Automatic annotation (TrEMBL):
Any one GO molecular function term: DNA binding
Domain RNA polymerase sigma-70 region: 18-78
Protein's name in the database: RNA polymerase sigma-70 factor (ECF subfamily)
Domain RNA polymerase sigma factor 70 region 4 type per the UniProt entry, residue ranges: 109-160
Keyword Coiled coil: no
Taxonomic classification: Bacteria, Bacillati, Actinomycetota, Actinomycetes, Streptosporangiales
Entry keyword Ribosomal protein: no
Record-linked InterPro entries: DUF6596, RNA_pol_sigma70_r2, RNA_pol_sigma70_r4_t2, RNA_pol_sigma_r2, RNA_pol_sigma_r3/r4-like, TPR-like_helical_dom_sf, WH-like_DNA-bd_sf
DUF6596 domain span: 178-278
């Protein structure tokens, strides 16, 4: 890949949401903003290899995209219903700050996560407009066909326009009711960066995790007393701290037990642990923890020891027991089985995993965990079959490399 192409890829990850958000604020139309941003990046692909990367790539893209949007609005200005948009083009007055924090991308995510939209539409739209994922990538994450996902995103944008959903951070009294949906979307954005689903993408996408953490910090600042906002931020920090140790130089996933813990980011771990301790103190005072706080506490246990052999699995299992009462999803039950294997052995854990077969047959991690348990029980034939299925379903190249090696070690 050429230097210009690498720069465009890097800038796309860093600037896509900023450009879309800036255009949405100026022109008040998500379709115009997204299409103009895409046209600006296409222009960069065409011009930067010959002209060189500009000193301020984000500013170049925003200016170019604004011109593309103005051209489109002028073309459509013949229609009466475009007069308002046309006037907006020439309105150079800076917008008045709206909401507790004046951040375009935060406004954009609250717009995408408006309760008038269906939950799956909120997630898809945020992954597209805020995280910059392609429609095929989002379709893979949702396990649906690409045309269906494209229609879902189109309908969501049309609903925002028809319902006149405002581009703003909600007022203080509306924030608590709106924040849970935003946290759920940020968690999915982070997860896509932490372990990308697309076969044509890098195994880890630090631009996505960094943006999710940035937005989570803003939500935390908006709602300093919200336990789940603090819990999600802590969960992200403790997970991000391990990022550089998670993929080997050869591009293979490195499991938590095998990671070089000396390479973990000590500052992120310390900040995550501090947030977890704050929430534990709140729980002791009578405020029960939510899902993200419990997940953060589980990660705090994992990151509190220098050797994986010293992990307190009884504490982790107790936390999963607490989480199961809040979240009955089969994925939580699957992860709980991993802790059961460490305490009660692989046979007991396998029985728990097999009970999830009907609900998780299409989930690669189900087969990967099952393969490892069968390997530990000495059942090489069934373990190999489970590894084959996990490899077939896995979309991440680092996971595929790891699972292939483990399968081949069976002989």
């Amino acid at each position: 890949m050429s230097d210009a192409a690498e720069s465009i890829t890097r800038v796309h990850r860093a600037e896509w949401a900023r450009v879309v958000a800036a255009l949405t604020r100026r022109f008040g139309d998500l379709d115009i903003a997204e299409e103009a941003a895409a046209e600006a990046f296409a222009a960069a692909v065409e011009r930067w290899p010959a002209e060189g990367v500009p000193p301020n790539p984000g500013g170049w893209l925003t200016t170019t995209a604004s011109r593309k949007a103005i051209d489109r609005i002028r073309r459509e200005n013949k229609r009466d219903d475009k007069h308002k948009e046309a006037r907006m083009v020439y309105d150079d007055d800076p917008p008045e700050p709206v909401g507790a924090i004046d951040d375009d991308r935060l406004r954009l995510i609250f717009t995408c996560c408006h309760p008038a939209l269906a939950p799956e539409a909120r997630v898809a739209l945020t992954l597209r407009l805020v995280a910059g994922l392609t429609v095929p990538e989002i379709a893979r994450a949702f396990l649906v066909q690409e045309p269906a996902m494209g229609q879902r995103i189109t309908r969501a944008k049309a609903k925002i326009k028809a319902a006149r959903i405002p581009y703003r951070v909600p007022s203080a009294e509306d924030l608590p009711a709106r924040v849970s949906g935003v946290l759920a979307v940020l968690y999915l954005v982070f997860n896509e960066g932490y372990l990308a689903t697309g076969p044509g993408t890098d195994p880890v996408r630090p631009g996505l995790t960094a943006e999710a953490i940035r937005l989570a910090r803003l939500i935390r600042a908006l709602l300093p007393d919200d336990g789940e906002a603090a819990g999600l931020l802590a969960l992200m920090l403790l997970t991000e701290a391990r990022r550089t140790a998670r993929v080997s130089a050869g591009g293979e996933l490195v499991t938590l037990a095998e990671q070089d813990r000396g390479s973990w980011d000590a500052a992120l771990i310390a900040e995550g642990h501090r947030l977890v301790r704050e929430r534990l103190a709140a729980a002791a005072a009578g405020t029960p923890p939510g899902r993200y706080q419990i997940l953060a506490a589980i990660n705090a246990v994992h990151t509190s020891v220098r050797d994986a052999r010293d992990t307190d699995w009884s504490q982790i299992l107790a936390l999963y027991d607490q989480l199961v009462r809040l979240d009955r999803s089969p994925i939580v039950a699957l992860n709980r089985a991993v802790a059961v294997a460490e305490l009660d052995g692989p046979e007991v854990a396998l029985a728990a995993v097999d009970r999830l077969q009907d609900r998780l047959a299409g989930y690669h991690a189900f087969h990967a965990i099952r393969a490892d348990l069968l390997r530990r029980l000495g059942d090489g034939h069934r373990s190999r079959a489970a590894y084959d299925k996990a490899i077939e379903l896995a979309g991440n190249t680092a996971e595929v490399a790891y699972l292939t090696r483990r399968r081949d070690q069976l002989g």
